[in-house]
Amino acid sequence: MCQRSCFPSHSIEEDDLMSILLIEPSKALVTIGGEDVLMYEPLALEYVAAGTADEHDVQILDMRLEPDLEGVLGLFRPDVIGITAYTVNVKTVRRLFQAIKAWRPETLTEAGGHHATMVPEDFVSPAIDLIALGEGVFTFQEIVRRRDKGEGFDGIPGLFALGEQLTPDVMGGLLCRMRYIDDAPSGALEEGWGQVVIMGAGLDTRPYRVRGVETTQVVEIDHPAAQTLKKVCLRRALGGLPAHGLFIRVDLDRQCLDDAMRSSGFQPRERICFIWEGVTQYITAEAVDATLRTISRIMGVETTIVFTYIWRGIIDGSARSQAEERIVASAHRLGLPWIFGLEPVDIRPYLAERGLLLVEDLGADEYRERYLASAGRRMNVFEGERIVLARGVGKHAQA
Ligand SMILES: C[S@@+](CC[C@H](N)C(=O)[O-])C[C@H]1O[C@@H](n2cnc3c(N)ncnc32)[C@H](O)[C@@H]1O
């Protein structure tokens, strides 16, 4: 390792110094890389080191020559570790990051270099906190500055913005759909509706942030694993579970919503607002069908349901843009494949068959017009997801 390779040039208290380790990895034996021809110095890392060495204790570990990472971690105890990589290094580097996080999870980890610039997705891993694109000197300098100040990393130029790059336009779509759905329970509350039922609630905070929501019963329905996490978060944030909440656990792919509702003591009230946001693409066609039929059985005429869906062409691959390819691949990589979709042209008859009346079906164009243009905001909105507002034909109307 370069011993004290880059000393701060002015006097700083020892305690103020962060320890920063920059690693040049070795390549796997079975690959051919530049170092098979010539062992060049880790020049790129030297530039990156120079960008922060005035303020912190920076060392470079060249693992092509010194493979003892464990020894260096034990001695130097770095707060921040950056590793550069060519394509031949990708697997090695991912393994190094895993070892680093296993050693000390709070160490900030950053991947950079040629491969990260060309295919940043390859470094998407729970063991890698940040991915820098391009030259990286100023990006890394800013990362270190913010870490030192305890600030977040959003908006650093040259940093791979995970959400927006892996799932382009999704953030804009999420914000607009949240606004649209927020208006549903608020409207329901204003009109004095009896229940708000949120299916696939995830970490949705509507039951705790919509004004006046505590005056109604909020029913959160979710997969058991997701609901367990939600309860842990709620207890941590609120000190307990709210009195106006009822929690129902159900795996819609395997269990019947009706049974789960009955066994939880759910009592449908006269007017219910159902919300099913960002869920239908994850479950089977049979589960979507059964769930909508259960809801429509429960629903009176004054009940509404708002739910999102993905265009079927995106799901089956027959009509996917390049950006949508990335979104679908990203969901797949996360172990949450998209498997169900609908065509807008089919929505009305699809709902009618299940005893529901379409009120409106809208998407990116309407979002832009309603929420962005009027506010003078420019934001990309995901075109592949739409939202449906429907109401029950109802027991009364059916009779
Ligand atoms: C992307 S999250 C959406 C969370 C929330 N509605 C939102 O928009 O922020 C997908 C939700 O669908 C739920 N989900 C996925 N598969 C499910 C299944 N088979 N049964 C019940 N819920 C499921 C997950 O538990 C998760 O809460």
For this entry, give a set of tags.
399 residues, alpha/beta, Rossmann fold, 2 domains, 7-stranded mixed sheet, 5-stranded parallel sheet, 16 helices, disordered N terminus, binds S-adenosylmethionine
Quaternary state of the chains: single chain
The helix content, as a percent range, equals 25-40%
Tell me the fraction of residues in β-strands, as a range. 15-25%
The molecules bound to the chains, other than polymers, are: S-adenosylmethionine
What composes the largest sheet? 7 strands, mixed
The whole-angstrom Rg is 26 Å
Which structural class fits the helix and strand makeup?
Answer: alpha/beta
CATH architecture heading of the largest domain: 3-Layer(aba) Sandwich
Would you tell me the overall average pLDDT?
A: 88
Name of the level-1 CATH class of the largest domain: Alpha Beta
| Spatial strand arrangement across the major sheet | 8-7-6-9-10-12-11
CATH superfamily membership of the largest domain: Vaccinia Virus protein VP39
Order of helices and strands: EHEHEHEHEHHHEHEHEHEHEHHHEHEH
Low-confidence stretches: 2-12
Task: Describe the fold and architecture.
The chain has 399 residues and is of the alpha/beta class. It folds into two domains: 14-160, 3-Layer(aba) Sandwich (Rossmann fold); 170-398, Rossmann fold, CATH 3.40.50.150. 39% of the residues lie in helices and 17% in strands. It has helices at residues 43-52, 69-76, 90-103, 114-118, 137-149, 162-166, 170-190, 206-209, 224-238, 257-264, 285-298, 312-316, 322-333, 347-353, 364-373, 394-398; strands at 19-24, 57-62, 80-84, 108-112, 130-131, 195-199, 217-222, 245-249, 272-276, 304-310, 356-362, 385-392. A seven-stranded mixed sheet has the order 8-7-6-9-10-12-11, with helices on both faces. The chain has a five-stranded parallel sheet with strand order 2-1-3-4-5, sandwiched between helices. α1 (43-52) links the parallel β1 (19-24) and β2. α1 (43-52) packs parallel to α5 and α7 crosses α15. The longest helix has 21 residues, at 170-190. S-adenosylmethionine (SAM) binds at residues 200-202, 204, 222-223, 226, 250-253, 277-279, 282-283.
